[in-house]
Amino acid sequence: MFAAFAFVLGLVLGSFLNVCIYRIPRGMSIVYPPSHCPSCGHRLSPLDNIPLLSYMLLRGKCRYCGASISPRYPLVELLTGLLVLSLYIKTGVGVDFLIYLPFIACLVALSFIDIDTGRLPDRITLPLTALGFILSLLPGGLSPFASLLGIISGLLTMYAVAVFGKALFKKEALGGGDVKLMMAVGSFLGAAGVLFALFAGSILGSFFGIWFLARKKGNVIPFGPFLSAGALVYLFLEKFVLSSLGI
Ligand SMILES: [Zn+2]
């Protein structure tokens, strides 16, 4: 019962994230104006805005002008629904659920914004870092000290990777956005989470990077989605990962 509620909550949250992913890089407000079709500008009714269902009922086309709607909208909704469901399965109803819900939401939004624009906006990463520290004051999750240590290790580790990468490849290997993203990851997951996310993100990134470079030459690969995926793997497998390392 609660599991179904968590999934639906995730779908609705994903629908809101779609708005954020489109509007935040464009410097638009995320609450005003109400949703409209990007092709014909027609305002969407609540019926056009039901996560997943509207897309299926409308067969991926705008009701008013017939323009195709990107399948990415229902994909982001489904992804967020599954992540929130997984979080509920891990934490149940409680403080931990409330702590990690905004973290997951921001990682999804940041990943898709990075794919679209190659940027990780400060408007999300910096407040998220602060939020991670504030939430560490609550019982559950990390201690405030561990959160602070996580922020510092995110900053220092990524700074070291950036300097080292620049010396090695003679060009910017990492953006400042990646550094701030890992500060946010550290504020929620601590120093071990930073190291794991960087390690897993690098493996995923090089695997997909080879495939990506084989198709499109010379393009910069956004690193944010891989770091975010590494952070989520750590969040969901934390106990397993730590125990397998003997910590
Ligand atoms: Zn339209």
From TrEMBL:
Which Pfam families does this one have?
A24_N_bact, Peptidase_A24
Give the species.
Answer: candidate division WOR-3 bacterium
Q: Which reaction does it catalyse?
A: Typically cleaves a -Gly-|-Phe- bond to release an N-terminal, basic peptide of 5-8 residues from type IV prepilin, and then N-methylates the new N-terminal amino group, the methyl donor being S-adenosyl-L-methionine
Prepilin peptidase A24 N-terminal domain: residues covered: 8-90
Q: What is its EC number?
A: 2.1.1.-, 3.4.23.43
Alphabetically ordered keywords of this record: Cell inner membrane, Cell membrane, Hydrolase, Membrane, Methyltransferase, Multifunctional enzyme, Protease, Transferase, Transmembrane, Transmembrane helix
Question: What family does this chain come from, according to its entry?
Answer: Belongs to the peptidase A24 family.
What is its subcellular localisation?
Cell inner membrane; Cell membrane
Q: Which residues cross the membrane?
A: 87-112, 124-142, 148-169, 181-214, 220-237
- The protein's name: Prepilin leader peptidase/N-methyltransferase
Q: What is the membrane topology listed in the Swiss-Prot or TrEMBL record?
A: Multi-pass membrane protein
Q: Name one GO molecular function term.
A: methyltransferase activity
